[in-house]
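Input structure tokens:
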């Protein structure tokens, strides 16, 4: 009877120790209020993806030509039928249901895109952020 109790106690200690070690590995973000921030609020371009073509191909596999690539046609025969730069814009943060009457009852994917500059002490980096809301 003592062997199973010792075994269960040892197992519980091992699980607790493993959980403690795993929790200790998560880096904490510190001094958040004093960090330099960049607001992404403003006008974002958006594309309504009714047929789920922005991520999946016709076999429902992820495609390498998705909207998240923001690819521009290089030749006339390139089959790229979207352009975020010519797409409509809406205010972010905000809901799409009241900003575009076509989206009032829409439940599906909408792709958003904006561009922004990030200042760094060492270099300038041009960033791109795309968000899909299924």
């Amino acid at each position: 009877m003592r062997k199973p109790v010792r075994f269960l106690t040892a197992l519980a200690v091992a699980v607790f120790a493993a959980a403690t070690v795993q929790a200790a590995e998560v880096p904490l973000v510190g001094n958040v209020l004093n960090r330099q921030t960049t607001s992404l609020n403003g006008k974002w371009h958006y594309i309504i993806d009714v047929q789920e073509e922005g991520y999946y191909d016709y076999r429902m596999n992820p495609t390498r030509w998705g909207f998240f690539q923001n690819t521009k046609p290089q030749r006339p025969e390139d089959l790229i039928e979207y352009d975020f730069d010519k797409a409509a814009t809406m205010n972010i943060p905000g809901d799409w249901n009241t900003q575009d009457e076509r989206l009032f009852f829409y439940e599906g994917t909408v792709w958003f895109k904006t561009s922004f500059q990030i200042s760094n002490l060492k270099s300038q980096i041009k960033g791109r952020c795309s968000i899909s809301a299924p």
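Strands lie at 42-49, 89-92, 109-119, 124-133. The helical segments are 2-24, 96-99.
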